[in-house]
Amino acid sequence: MTKESIIQTVFEVAKERYAAVGVDVDQALENMKKVSLSLHCWQADDVNGFEVQAGALSGGIQVTGNYPGRARTIDELRADVKKALTYIPGSHRLNLHEIYGDFQGKVVDRDEVEPVHFQSWMEWAKENNLKLDFNSTSFSHPKSGDLTLANPDEEIRNFWIEHTKRCRLISEEMGKFQNDPCMMNLWVHDGSKEVPANRLKYRALLEQSLDEIFATKYDYMKDCIEAKLFGIGLESYTVGSYDFYLGYGAKKNKIVTLDTGHFHLTESVADKVSSLLLFTPEIMLHVSRPVRWDSDHVVILNDDLTDLAREIIRCNALDRVHIGLDYFDATINRIGAYVVGCRATQKAFLQALLEPAALLQQYEANGNYFERLALQEEAKSLPWNAVWDMYCLQNGVPVGETYIPGIHEYEKEVTGKR
Ligand code: RNT
Ligand code: ZN
After folding, report:
1. Largest CA distance in the chain
2. Measured from the CA of 137, which atom of ligand 1 is nearest?
3. Where are the beta strands (DSSP E) in 219-355?
4. Which pLDDT value is given to residue 146?
5. Contacts (Cβ under 8 Å, ≥6 apart) of 398
6. pLDDT digits (tens, 9 = 90+) for 14-23
């Protein structure tokens, strides 16, 4: 038997097994086409970016490790992302930060950035069948400090307002170019190491800045606002807390970004999905993996991730949830890190699509709680892996761990020589 025919045979058996609990496997595979990931460009180069005047990473985030092979130029980053995509089934997006512009060797300050600095990205993305998403960048800049959009110093605050306005225009141009809305994420690190004496003041300033930034209406971009629990060196107070952005998003109809590393460790991000779907327009995800803190470890297939994917599928919300990734690990091969995290996320969504949801919900509606619990447990070991292998096969990417040698090869030939 060839490898393909084994995968085919096991798949057919799995299909029957799923049919017995009322799950249509072909439909699940069809729905996987809607699971499009937004790959975070910053995994390839440890959040450095391509500003000529680039400074050290700041804003309370940190990358650990110095594994060889970091992408140092736009061309290297593009090549790395393309390589990673050859191991990730389906069609996807690339999420750029403003500091990854094509600045052509010129110093372009954050309040001077223009759509032209992303023209080559737009063209490259089109050639490679990728859509782009975007982020303003408030960190790693002399004016970053502890406060940007919430800074009482009007000059500094206006500088970041101008930056963010420009980023929205860039996003609009990207969205137009690709004829698909560009998701623009706004995250600022604003906060304080010690307990502030006036929490309200900075939050009021942030609200005011956001109102000014969002005053212009656009058609091809969507605004997302990302909360956080705390940053390194900013442990006591975060201006843009979850309450702040949830309130702002619900009131002003903005999309709240849920970064899975930005909550208390025992808090369920999955549980937030259904509430947000009722009160805010859509959801942007930053799928990450906190280990004891917001450590941005490579995403793996754990309970947090499967719970999150299941909630989205149970809410039938694939059209309203945008799946971005956000982690940075410089201790292992960076392209391998992309692939592990992306495939884990896809597996979680596939498992969720294969959940015997109708039967479980029927049990629940009838008050059959033993049956619900029993099926929930049995469903954990249904043969989803056979369907995943078929999904990889159908999409022309390596099945199982067979992608590992390809990453080794690329390291030997390309990243290892940097
Ligand atoms: C930081 C936020 C933010 C960043 C990126 C680089 O804690 O998660 O999304 O990771 O903007
Ligand atoms: Zn994030």
Report:
1. 71
2. 11
3. 221-226, 237-238, 255-259, 283-287, 321-325
4. 98
5. 87, 392, 406
6. 999 999 999 9
192-242: pLDDT as tens digits: 999 999 999 999 999 999 999 999 999 999 999 999 999 999 999 999 999
Which residues, judged by CB distance below 6 Å to any ligand atom, belong to the binding site of ligand 1?
A: 42, 47, 61, 135, 187, 226, 228, 259, 286, 294, 326
- Characterize the bridge pairing of strands 237-238 and 191-192: antiparallel
For the chain, the first-to-last Cα distance in angstroms comes to 42
DSSP helix/strand/coil, 221:
strand
pLDDT digits (tens, 9 = 90+) for 340-376: 999 999 999 999 999 999 999 999 999 999 999 999 9
Instruction: Record the tokens describing residue 340, joined without a space.
Output: 């592990």
What backbone torsions phi and psi does residue 267 show, to the nearest 5 degrees?
A: -80, 140
CA distance 282 to 238: 24
Name the residue of 326, 328, 329 whose CB sits within 8 Å of the most ligand 1 atoms, as the mutation to test its pocket. Answer: 326
Q: State the amino acid at position 132 in one-letter form.
A: L
Residue nearest ligand 1's atom 3 by CA: 187
The SS3 of residue 397 is coil
Confidence of residue 111 (pLDDT cuts 50, 70, 90): very high
How far does residue 259's CA lie from ligand 2's centre (Å)?
A: 5
Residue 337 pLDDT level (bands cut at 50, 70, 90): very high
Catalytic annotation present for 80? no
